[in-house]
Structures are given as structure tokens and as C-alpha cells.
Amino acid sequence: MSRFWSATTRALQPYVPGEQPKLPKLVKLNTNENPYGPGPRVLDALRQATGESLKLYPDPESTRLRAAIAAYFGSVDLRQVFVGNGSDEVLAHTFQSLLKHEQPILFPDITYSFYPVYCRLYGIDYATVPLDEQFALRVADYAQPNGGIIFPNPNAPTGRALALDQVEALLVANPDSVVVVDEAYIDFGGCSAVALVNRYPNLLVVQTLSKSRSLAGLRVGFAVGHADLIDGLNRVKNSFNSYPLDRLAQSGATAAIEDREWFERTRQAVIKSRHALVQELAALGFEVLPSSANFIFARHPQHDAEKSALALRQRGIIVRHFKLPRIEQFLRITVGTDEQCALLVAALREIISA
Ligand SMILES: *Cc1c(COP(=O)(O)O)cnc(C)c1O
Fold it and tell me: pTM (2 decimals)?
């Protein structure tokens, strides 16, 4: 605390990201990064962008990248795509431009913990809606006056996906609110709501290149929605930072969106490893929530989650544990390579039998 801090700064409760330890040889399964890394086409594009041209500002509108994203989906045009410095930045602008109204916004009680942080930053009222006993989102529970709705699909940290007809039911029931679907993990098993944007002017879908496209280090995310929503985001972006994506990010991200083959191969590999990992953990007595993401959320009826996380850590494996109501007995484990998953399972077997 400093006397030079503004009242706003004093009132903030910043998000705490999963740690990025510098230890060598760590099996890092705590922040849902993709174990396969970007493909050679992306690395080539980054090398090409590294040169004399860095003296020039990048395209403030990231036109090539937005065109690549529009072409990837096929059903939307350039004016329906917004890009930002990670989807966290896209979400931040979304809270400020589309979710700040009279009524409180709604999101699940167990969800991405950045949402309440943005609410505090921008002075937005919110109310949480409890997930059901099986940690599923029930659309009927959102039938209450609201200034907007936001949720991840699949949800984080549960990994559970909401079916597209349920997303649509939410849009139909809330025609006067913006509904934001944060699809950070959609490519690992969910059904994207981008298919609905041309029918629902109140729908904004946010995605990231950090997970399914292995580019967490490049910081690129995007939103797709009605051109009027995108215009709102642009007003905030151009009042904050007109060049959020540098030249390298624009080039690498464009190549990543265009390289469908690498994307398909790596995401299928993650899905396959997830199925195997779920089986192995179930065999050890873990209860695993059905996951459509690149992580699983699991608890063991006889073993305390915090202790297990600590014991894993002593064996050089880090996973995420949230000391929060309802989920303090769960571990969130990123699906790594098959080799990493095998190390995890072996360590858990040892911890459980000790
Ligand atoms: C990882 C994640 C994001 C943020 O991703 P960026 O790296 O900022 O693009 C957003 N929402 C959820 C639910 C996430 O898990």
C-alpha cells in the first residue's frame, strides 16, 4: 500500500495467474498450455517478420489476421472479428464496452476467476449463479434480470461443456442482454457458438490462440459477433492502445489460423491423451468430471487435494489447486504429452498407496 495509490488502485484485487516456475525438467500441468508447441509454419512466419520492418508500427487493425479468422469460420466477415493481446485483453474490453449496465451481470459461482477481477476494475455489479450438484450450468437459473451474462464453454476449471442448444436457449431467453461465451477450450470437444452469431445480435464469442493453437507466449485472442458489438470493442480498444498486437504476433497468429493441419493433429492428440488419462485416474479411484477441455478436474474420495498437489510438486509435477468453496478437494490437471501423463499417473499411484 502506498499513499500515492489512487482509490481505484487500492480497491483492486488482482487476478493471480498460475505460476510459471523457472525450474528445469518440471512436468508443468498447471496452466493449460498445449504440450506440442506451434508448428513450423508459425515459426517460419515469426522468423520472416523479424527484421528491418520492426522499426514500423504494426497494422493497428490486424487486417490480415482478422481476414484469416473470418475465412477460418467461413460464415462471418471482417467487420465481425476483433483481435486483442490475449483473450484476457479482449475480455477486459468486453466488460468495459458491453457488460457495464444498470443491472448486475451474471456468471457461474465456479468459473474463470478473472471475471470478478474485471468487474472490480470497471465498477460492474455482478451476481453469481450456482452450478448444479454435478457442476453443470443450468440455463433456467439465468432467468433473472441482468445486465449481461458471461461464462466459459467448456467451463473452467470444471471442463464441462454446455450443448449448443442450451447456449441458444440462453440467447433466446435474454434478447436484451449481451451473452458472452468464452470459448478458450472449445477446440478440445465443445461445439462453438460462432455458428449462432449471425442469428443473435446479442452474442459475442471469445476465443484464444493460447490453448488449442499452442501460442500462449504470443498473446493473441479474438472475438466474433455482430458488427455493432465489434464496433463497441473497437471504441474501447482505440481509447486504450491502438496497437495491441505487434508485428510478430500478427504474423505468427495468421500462420497459426491458416495451418489447419497442425491444429487438427495436435488437438486430436490432446483429446486422445485426455481419454486415456481419464481412464487411468478412474482406475486409481479418482472421480473425474466429464471434460471437453485440455485439462481434467478430479477428486479422490480418500485423499486431500491440497496434500496431493504438494506431494506431486515434491516429485517435480505441478498441477492447479484452488482453495475455494465447493472445489477445494479437486485438482485441475492439464493434459500433457502421453509421457507427461504417464509420469503424473505413476506419481499419483505412489502418493495414493503411501
Ligand atoms: C486461458 C483462458 C483465457 C485467457 O487466455 P489468453 O491467454 O489471455 O488468451 C480466457 N478464458 C479462459 C476461461 C481461460 O482459461
Answer: 0.97
